[in-house]
Amino acid sequence: MPETSSRHTESSLLRKWLEQYDEVRSQTLNLVEPLSPEDQMVQSMPDASPAKWHIAHTTWFFETFILTPHMEGYAPFNARFGFLFNSYYKRLGGHPHRTIRGTLSRPTLDQVRLYRAHVDNSIHELLHCGASVEVLRLLELGLNHEQQHQELIVTDIKHAFWVNPLRPGYQPGQVRIVEASAAPPLAWCCFDGGIHESGHDSCGFAFDNELPRHYTYINPFRIASRLVTNKEYLAFMADGGYSRAELWLSDAWDHVCENGWTAPLYWEQAGNDWTQFTCRGMLPLNPAEPVCHVSFYEADAFARWAGARLPHRVRMGGCRRFHREHRQNIRESAGKRKLSSQAACPGSTTG
Amino acid sequence: MPETSSRHTESSLLRKWLEQYDEVRSQTLNLVEPLSPEDQMVQSMPDASPAKWHIAHTTWFFETFILTPHMEGYAPFNARFGFLFNSYYKRLGGHPHRTIRGTLSRPTLDQVRLYRAHVDNSIHELLHCGASVEVLRLLELGLNHEQQHQELIVTDIKHAFWVNPLRPGYQPGQVRIVEASAAPPLAWCCFDGGIHESGHDSCGFAFDNELPRHYTYINPFRIASRLVTNKEYLAFMADGGYSRAELWLSDAWDHVCENGWTAPLYWEQAGNDWTQFTCRGMLPLNPAEPVCHVSFYEADAFARWAGARLPHRVRMGGCRRFHREHRQNIRESAGKRKLSSQAACPGSTTG
Amino acid sequence: MPETSSRHTESSLLRKWLEQYDEVRSQTLNLVEPLSPEDQMVQSMPDASPAKWHIAHTTWFFETFILTPHMEGYAPFNARFGFLFNSYYKRLGGHPHRTIRGTLSRPTLDQVRLYRAHVDNSIHELLHCGASVEVLRLLELGLNHEQQHQELIVTDIKHAFWVNPLRPGYQPGQVRIVEASAAPPLAWCCFDGGIHESGHDSCGFAFDNELPRHYTYINPFRIASRLVTNKEYLAFMADGGYSRAELWLSDAWDHVCENGWTAPLYWEQAGNDWTQFTCRGMLPLNPAEPVCHVSFYEADAFARWAGARLPHRVRMGGCRRFHREHRQNIRESAGKRKLSSQAACPGSTTG
Amino acid sequence: MPETSSRHTESSLLRKWLEQYDEVRSQTLNLVEPLSPEDQMVQSMPDASPAKWHIAHTTWFFETFILTPHMEGYAPFNARFGFLFNSYYKRLGGHPHRTIRGTLSRPTLDQVRLYRAHVDNSIHELLHCGASVEVLRLLELGLNHEQQHQELIVTDIKHAFWVNPLRPGYQPGQVRIVEASAAPPLAWCCFDGGIHESGHDSCGFAFDNELPRHYTYINPFRIASRLVTNKEYLAFMADGGYSRAELWLSDAWDHVCENGWTAPLYWEQAGNDWTQFTCRGMLPLNPAEPVCHVSFYEADAFARWAGARLPHRVRMGGCRRFHREHRQNIRESAGKRKLSSQAACPGSTTG
Description:
Oligomer: homotetramer
Shape of chain A: globular
Number of domains of chain A: 2
């Protein structure tokens, strides 16, 4: 994103910011494009939110933190929305209990889109008159915040459609059958220990919990050269993975028994084969793809079975660049971030 | 409703049945007319259902019990709807857990309305070729079943809109300010004891749990000449009704304390006055109207406070005709049936 | 129990009352005799109470309702016990939440027994000086109340020992192997309809909910000549009783599925045979005995399977005398009362 | 504890081990000495265990991991205890659900003490014949395991007695009134950053999660010279600490509101003063003592209020020696370990 340097930045810079703003904001609307107003109402569990709520809440952010305090004479689009679409900022004065987000049929989707348009127009108007460094900082924060919610929209709608017995596809028009090519052979990558810089470096945006830049010490370790594949996970299952108490943490085993776990979330057996719920509906499981939507408990049990253990987060950071180059076979965005931090890397050991 | 007498009834009779059918079915659509597709998705608690589910489930009834078994060559509109819109008839093979009715964005409202139209057309087609007594019996049952769900649509949407912090009105266009006239003075009506016939008599429709006709013995009693008014209930509240343990059943008192009850459901204090959530939004409480939406626990506590007790159901039956003549001041349908069986009739005593 | 006639009754009458008092009170202690202080601490579910609590609470009754208001100069044994051993009389000022009764290691069992002795002595002292009709009425109520809790002691300790994986026997010394004789053949007893007097008649003690004496009308009916046997219930199970949704109420079927019910409470399969947890530990199931510890849902499903239905309570009253004469084969007190009101009487029909 | 060097260690070494064993084992019995059999039954919440369970489970450890596999001809004291007193080692074949530990009146306390004596005798017998390095390693592990449970016995009985409305004292005989002297003034201790060795060093016992020895990097920081006092925490409360949403994490604030938190666990207001539940019953709060039994949420809110933040665990390790020298004013063991890792150190900052 563009650099911010002076109190009132030049118009060319502001134009770039507005382009960026429009791009992020329209990407959100692109994501909900395949969804009906009814689809955008669904809250399938307390931890998920309806798509309509996401598009309202991300708008609330710009109104609450930029327009209201920084635009002279700005009047909120609707006096109740400040309460309705606050997520959890208690100091702003409360919000509906998060479990009832799925019951908010009013405001309607149309009203929420008018709210978006109103706020977008006001942001344009504000920036056309110049903007302080603080406003640009908040704008950048708001856009990154909105991108987080874009991920949640996909994650949440996937779960919403999974709960529906009809198992509709979120993007059914985009189906593309991919040949199940083999994953590359697994190798071990060695990393030397040593002092390592962690946290965000100074250039570009960072959330506050990515700062400050600091040192950590990483002990020498080896890590798998790629993510665990569905095929490898199926081998764990075939070897009784879900019925051998000794592979699981004690708490995890209680979960397995109480919830009758026999496979990862979104997997379903169809005859002898396995299928997987995706954004394009139920599809055959591709054995070459990375295993996805496993919980920490499952990843941990898999790693124990494989004679390895899960990498620490700090090591994941150290070898993230490596993985980035090997992710060309990952085609679906939902759950990927989770996967990269939770997947079991078989055979990882410390020196 | 028309009488059914021979195996294949005459066309004039069938015409009357179809008129009846069309009238009940269109009344359901009239009820959801003020609601958006989003409104028809809301399930505000496990015991309530979304309006869309109601209009689908009542259609499912006609398809499942009439068209599929009795219309030759009938193919279900959608093979999955038999499961989706079954309420709790386990012998028909399962249904979604009732708590997830509010997540079913698919089928869409449009699809559900096509489903209704398809079934309506098929019912017309079936009856145009004549109908057996059994089909007409099921038709009558289905229409009464649909009328039950019409009551639920109103009850459920009222609660759905109450949960929404915006408190929208279900029928906002129909607001009509009514003068708060005084209720008639309360008198005591005496009933002699004796053998009393109970259950439905032979003419017209009855649900199976209203049969068979049988005798009961009613001991002599007195009952109030009208329902308890909001004004009388306010007197109970002003006298510490919700803070005096001795007025409540032990279980009830636990409920009062754990849930912080201080007034009936849908009541809200506005300054010194009370308002009440209605199908037309929040309105001032009319002191002359019957108190509404009180739980059994509250009715029982009120009756104890008033030195009376709640009437047995069988006595309510005995004096229902009486009350019917005094209900001219009742203007809102939701919750009325509940009220008539739960309201405290002060001073009722057995001889 | 003795009659009470004048304000200050004669000493011979009071002696009889004291004998009665001593008999009931010592019967309670007899019931807990086989139990260690630890056994008397167990609360295996919120609806059950520890034996120690029962023996304290029954004592609390006499102290609270007789000694404190009616004995001049009486000082409570312990000022905190009024709160600790109140069950649910809110107007007396609160009580511990019923779910924590099992955590009250203090007062100790020894202290509770001293409490009993203190109250017993005081009751003797009070009655030696004469007693008003009101005191005798309360004494009679207290003794009947204590007998109710005697039943609960047995019911609750049975459940407490069932939850313990060791399945200890409550009265292990009293084991007596009974020959599994056949139950008498089932016949149908016809009862004419008509007006029937219900509620307690004037002589002897009655709880307030057994009054007043009133008329009811019973329609003519037939009822089975004896209770359903274990053998008959086993036939229901062998015929797939627990896996056929059509035999169960819809709510009941949800219970069956969610809790994995396959047999009545306290039954356990041992190889091909069934055993039953009793007050003397696990014993072979006697096919000739009445089935016991079935829930309403199970009794209802059994009755439907048998082509019959459950008797109304009022009919049970009508034929109670009949059953009393056929209960000679019932050897265990726990759960019997429940059984008699819930057991399915196959083939009962109304005329 | 003594060093273990050869396969069959010398008798003087074994004697030292047995002394150590006897000392730890008898310390456990000393801890339960003030408790009646009933007290040792109480489980006041799912995360706590009855004292009787602790003394049985620690015995189970020695039987399961030492006697059964390593002592020829050893027969378990009771075949069911292996299941009954397993805590969560699933691979050993299951255990009772942890929520029912408080219902296990059988085995009795007497039987559990016989179990202890039997295992103690067998351990003595085993070691008198020499012991392998593996047996001594397990013995050391078992003794450390038992010391962990000694802490839990005190923690759990404190909570058990707190739940009891009588609030009994665990060690009432040991009351000693301490003058409320002032805490030393708070200063800031600076620590340089750098590579730091973490994990247990090679000599002496360590649990497996304290290994292996590894390097970490600690950034420079300052930390308070002593723990937060009750007086400082009272200032936070007086300044509206529990009613200012902005001081709390969002989740924390939900907890505060839903549970009505207004003070730390075990605190109770008595008029204008505060009292605190201790192992000697309710005592006046000593303002000079470290605040105790605050949750992470409370510690975090306090730190935010104080303009500081909570120390990372690794920094706590770094300055543990420092604190150890300043703990002379800590007089009560329960909760101390928790305190040291959770207490807010006002003003700690990273360089």
